[in-house]
Amino acid sequence: MIEGAWWRKWVFFYVPMALFLLFLLFPFYWMVITSVRPDGELYRPWNSINYNPFWTWNPTWDHVRYLFEETLFASWLWNTTFIALASTAISLVCGVFAGYALSRLNFPFAGSLGTGIFITYLVPQTLLFIPLAEIIRNYRLGDTPWSLILTYPTFLIPFCTWLMMGYFKAVPKELEECARIDGASRWQAMLYIVIPVAIPGILSAGIFAFTLSWNEFIYALVFLSSPGQKTVPVGVTSELIRGDVFFWGPLMAGALLGSIPVAIAYSFFVEHYVAGLTGSVKG
Amino acid sequence: MGQVVLREVNKFYDSVHAVKDVNLQIRDKEFVVFVGPSGCGKTTTLRMIAGLEPISSGDISIDGNVINELAPMDRDIAMVFQNYALYPHMSVYDNMAFGLKMRKFGRPEIEKRVRETADVLGISELLVRKPRQLSGGQRQRVALGRAIVRHPRVFLFDEPLSNLDAKLRVQMRVELKKLHLRLGTTAIYVTHDQVEAMTLGDRVIVMKDGVVQQVGEPLELYNQPANKFVAGFIGSPAMNFAAVTVTEANGSLIAENSGMRIKLPDETAQRLRGYIGHEVTLGVRPEDLTVAGAADLDRPCFDAVIEVVEQLGSEILLDMKVGEGVMVACVEPTARVKVRDKLRVAMRPSRLHVFDARTEAAI
Questions:
Q1: Distance from CA of A105 to the nearest CA of B (A)
Q2: What is the pLDDT of residue A279?
Q3: What residues contact B348, with CB distance under 8 A and at least 6 apart?
Q4: Is the confidence at residue A96, as pLDDT, over 70?
Q5: Residues A197, B81: C-beta atoms closer than 8 Å
Q6: Helices A125-138, A153-170: crossing angle, 10 deg rounding
Q7: Chain B residues near any Cβ of chain A (below 8 Å)
Q8: Per-residue confidence band for A274, with pLDDT thresholds at 50, 70 and 90
Q9: Separation CA A148–CA A165 (nearest Å)
Q10: What average pLDDT does the segment A142-149 reach?
Q11: How would residue A278 be classed by pLDDT, with cut points 50, 70 and 90?
Q12: Sheet containing B279-284: order of strands
């Protein structure tokens, strides 16, 4: 910790911390304030007398109501939830098994296979969506949730595999060996010992995967076309920006409602999540 | 029953020959200890017996059945690991019950066995706790309990006491010994600590560089080490060695180097007849050196200068310069000595060891 004169703590800790927080939280604040501000205030020119961009005295639910009554926001929310949960589940199952195999089973080329999987994660989506679009079209999956549920794992599985590999490596090998001497087969040792011990890692991989697919934009934009099939990020931006007119109120309300589930997921698992990142298994 | 036989067992890691031609017969109910410096192959040997490491060549059998290809779960053994390897997400009870559950024991039988074992080890109050809520000594007991509860044919211990502090280690050592006397199950124990090896083992196996150096009862290793390595490894403080040349004068043999010239006792001289004019290594334990008094005139003696005096209370360790070499003597606490004293040191003639300078084997 910072020691010495009383002001040192303020200068070197609290003030920088406060600036940092302000910097990070301001966009969020802006989103909240915009989504409850009436249109009359939103489109007021900056040089008018009562211009006050940071606060409103007339909060309104109009934008949220508009979102649910005039757009398909409810179905976008449902689509996003379904797609994110399904693709996360697929990726987690594959990632956990692949990560276990790559870190624990000594088979030829395990190391280079692990690196290979990581490299696929580095291929940019903006490049990958072109061939993927071709595949989606050939399988006639375009404009269905499955076009995303099956393509999101292309980047989620490498991600989960890599994260779980690191986590499994941190689980002491002796735990598994002891279980196998105790009478468990390799499969049982994994199921009863290694996976339960790796729960924090699995949770953090799950949260990450969920967030990535919840916020994903390019694939959703390309593979989905009818308004009723869209996800929140695509629906909000494509339906609430018409031409060069930005419907700022509903736009921000949509962004706010779209970010809440992720925020809840984070705060709910935050302890496990931190344990997962620091990868600590204390025996 | 729990008779373990290793026949011509070898282990290769790629090009490294980690364990070389190990032959051993471990009797039922015996407590044998593998001891040696790190990397000597003792843990690898244990892991091959456990089935955690494939055997490159040779056979391992338990009670006459070759188990080379058996999975660890089918070998009916139990192992205690250095870091205890307690399952962190299970209570102590579940940790101990896990092996029994895997083997499909009935619930009442599991309950009965776990409670009995917990009683024996004095951990009955801890059964509901999680491993992270236990102290090091308690974790050690739980790890032992998990092994005992299954009534296996053989116990394997991989440096189980090295993570404990010095005092607890001594205490657990005694308990382990008691436990073995009570259960009578064959135990194979790996350690790098020669004190543990000497105190626990019915027989001790000293290994170095993958090769078994000597197998024997603790006192046998101490009194008749097979080579210079065993001599230096067993016993604390370690045996003193001095390179000497053997010469003959007036019909008796003399060993000499820059700092000493001693007449070898007849019994030792007999064995050294063939080495006249050659160099050998003379070995003598610190506890076999004494400050020479009037009664020691007929003993082999040499002059030394004290460099360091280490008071241990029950004895004094003297670090001495002898010619160009150094030697340690362990003398009575009543000896009046101080640094830079010159003194005459006597050896107990019957306790002299000699080793071939080249092969290092005992002569």
A1: 13
A2: 45
A3: B284, B288, B289, B290, B299
A4: yes
A5: no
A6: 120
A7: 50-52, 71-73, 75, 77-79, 81-89, 98-99, 102-103, 131-132, 139, 146, 150
A8: low
A9: 25
A10: 92
A11: low
A12: B261-263, B252-256, B240-249, B279-284, B353-356
pTM of this structure: 0.81
Phi, psi of A13 (to 5 degrees): -125, -65
Cα distance between residue B80 and residue B179, in whole Å: 14
Q: Pick from A89, A246, A254, A281: which is nearest to A173 by CA?
A: A281
Residue to mutate among A182, A185, A191, with most B CBs inside 10 A, is: A182
Whether A143 and A221 have beta carbons less than 8 Å apart is answered as no
Q: pLDDT at position B128, please?
A: 93
The CA distances from residue A236 to A129, A242, A252, B2, in Å, are 21, 11, 9, 72
Query: Looking at chain A, which residue has its C-alpha nearest residue B86?
Result: A283
pLDDT over 60 at A281, yes or no: no
CA distance B306 to B329: 10
Which of A222, A220, A267, A260 has the alpha carbon at shortest distance from A79?
Answer: A220
Q: At what angle do helices A62-70 and A73-104 cross, to 10 degrees?
A: 80
Mapped onto helix, strand or coil, the DSSP state of residue A275 is helix
pLDDT class of A277 with cuts at 50, 70, 90: low
pLDDT at B323: 83
Q: Complex ipTM, two decimals?
A: 0.83
**CA–CA gap between residue A101 and residue A95 (Å, rounded):** 10
Q: Is the dihedral of CA B234, B239, B242, B246 positive or negative?
A: negative
Taking 3-state DSSP, the helix, strand and coil percentages for chain B, each rounded to the nearest 5, stand at 30, 35, 35
Rounded Cα–Cα distance for residues B238 and B230 (Å): 10
Tell me the CA distances in angstroms from A150 to A85, A91, A190, one per residue in order: 12, 10, 27
Give A230's contacts (C-beta < 8 A, 6+ positions apart): A72, A76, A79, A220, A224, A238, A239
What is the C-alpha separation between B246 and B261, in angstroms, rounded?
10
A140, two tokens: 């006639």
Give the sheet arrangement for strand B203-208, strand by strand.
B77-80, B154-158, B186-191, B31-35, B203-208, B211-216
Q: How far apart are CA A104 and CA A28, in angstroms?
A: 43
Cα of B225 to nearest chain A Cα, Å: 35
Q: Which amino acid is at B220?
A: E
Could you give the CA distance from residue B146 to residue A182 in angstroms, rounded to a whole number?
9
Q: Can you tell me the mean pLDDT for B119-137?
A: 90
User: And the tokens for A75?
Assistant: 């179905």
Q: For residue B81, which of A190, A194, A174 has the smallest C-alpha distance?
A: A174
Q: Which residues make Cβ contacts (< 8 Å) with residue B213, sequence separation at least 6?
A: B36, B206, B207, B226, B227, B229, B230
**Cα A91 versus chain centre, distance:** 13
- What are the φ and ψ backbone dihedral angles of B185, each rounded to 5 degrees? -90, 140
What are the φ/ψ torsions at residue A154 (nearest 5 degrees)?
A: -60, -30
Give the burial class of A224: count Cβ atoms within 10 A of its Cβ; 0-12 exposed, 13-18 middle, 19 or more buried: buried
How far is it, in rounded angstroms, from Cα A243 to Cα B128?
Answer: 66
